[in-house]
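HUMAN:
Could you generate one sequence with tokenized structure?
ASSISTANT:
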Amino acid sequence: MFDKVKDLYKLKQQATALQKELGQTIIEAISPDDLIKVEISADLKIQSVFIDPSYLIESRKEQLEFQLKNVLTSAIVQAQQVAANKMKEMGGLDNLLGGLGM
């Protein structure tokens, strides 16, 4: 019984450490034309968005929307990959839960 409580406590500590590390890991995604830049943390929180002023005209609205969607998608995919790799470094979810008999 107490071993499972210790395992739960260890799991909570590892999860807290992972969450902190993910929050401090910043990924940058940039459009092919270098006019849009997004920074996102590995815990999927947008940190900053830069849009070159040349995009801020009505005639480029559709292009801006398209590029922004692509850059955000790229940033999210990269952040998810970083999070997955960090989880693997910790032994993966199976290893974390293995001691709990799950």
Notes: The chain is about 60% helix and 15% strand. The helical segments are 2-24, 61-89, 92-98. The radius of gyration is 19 Å. Residues 61-89 form the longest helix (29 residues).
